[in-house]
Amino acid sequence: MDMIRGQKLKIADVTSGASQFVVNLQLVSPLTIDVSCFGVDGQGKLSDERYMTFFNQPQSPCGGVKFVNNPNNQSSFQIDLTKIPASIDKLVFTAAIDGTGTMAQLQASSLTINQGSSCRFAFSGQDFAAERALMVAEIYRKEGVWRIAAVGQGFNGGLEALVKHFGGEVAAPTTSVTAAISSPVVEQPKSPPKLSLEKKVAKDAPQLLSLAKKAQISLEKKKLGDVQAQVALVLDASGSMFHQYFDGTVQKVIERILPLAVHFDDDGALDCWGFGCLAYKLDSVTLKNVKNYTKHQRLDDDRGLSRFDIGNDEPVVIKEIIKYYKKSKSSLPAYVVFISDGGVGSDDEIEELLRESASLPIFWQFVGIGGSDYGILENLDTMMGRVVDNCNFFALDDLHQISEQELYDRLLEEFPQWLTAAKAKRIIR
Fold this sequence. Notes:
Blueprint: E1 2-3, E2 8-10, H1 11-15, E3 20-26, E4 33-40, E5 52-53, E6 65-70, E7 74-80, E8 90-97, E9 109-113, E10 119-123, E11 133-142, E12 145-155, H2 158-165, H3 194-204, H4 209-221, E13 230-236, H5 242-246, H6 249-264, E14 270-275, E15 279-285, H7 293-297, H8 314-327, E16 334-342, H9 347-357, E17 362-372, E18 391-396, H10 404-411, H11 415-424
Parallel strand pairs: 1-10, 13-14, 13-16, 16-17, 17-18
Antiparallel strand pairs: 2-12, 3-7, 3-9, 4-5, 4-8, 6-7, 8-11, 9-10, 11-12, 14-15
């Protein structure tokens, strides 16, 4: 059934009595628009900021509201009314422009509930003028019965007006949704880049959006939200790695590392090297060229991943990386992810290079994939004679056997400690 502005229906009539359903918001516009669900109390106020559900806070504390960002300008909220606490009387679905523009630029858009008989509330820019935010619809309790109302109300002040409407306190102007809400319990970060990571990925590489979300969670857990760094990836291209390229494992590694680079690095690029017996600089990985990156690099017969060497020489590429970042004009530290399937030789030389580089703003994260005989890499935590512990190692028998979330957690396990130690020793600013 189609709803018109101001119309109200019982949810049970829409969902055929189901308390679990999905609310879809389809917003068609050249603008970047953020959608949210505010869970408010009987006075229409956001008494607990955790009940603002959106892409950076994708689930309410009760689990009754879950956000899912879909392709093609569609966002969804999975609703379970049985889990909504008595303190929450209303779920308000909103949209706010991030950046310049007005809601008059909206094309044919809609809110739908695809359950039971389903319902649809259609709207477009013709319904608005200078508004920068919308209250699209609300699901609310009345006399113990859940109902839905098609609202379609605009706010000229955009996000700030929306937050004030729900009783939030607006801090200094910012593009961050969470920074706009003041909570007496949860301290907000000073300059969160929370929106930028997912939005950059959604724009240029939407196939990596789920990875970006998981990377963001790990970054926040490790309190790395404000950290900037140059990010590098080193790929073992020795003969024993051939099958890892052939079956797509290396491509998956690159795709998983890239969101960290986009978050950390000011140029959003992942510096990349390959090595066998020789070391060679590859094209930087970006959101625009990441798709089939290994395939494209292997098309070059003069350099790159088409040239698998019989052996591997870790020291030669470690030296190249040290040289590269010594010459870098950037003041940012370097975070280097080093991928190998083992067969590590030259233990003494590797140890000496890592010991010497401990005084440089470079952190080495070694990852073993599907191999064995990792040599000195397995003893990095006990390596003596360094001004700071500048490296970490973990091995994966099979990349496919570890969740993406766990992978990010392990990749970032020791990086925060190194940052603290390196600052204390004035290795980094």
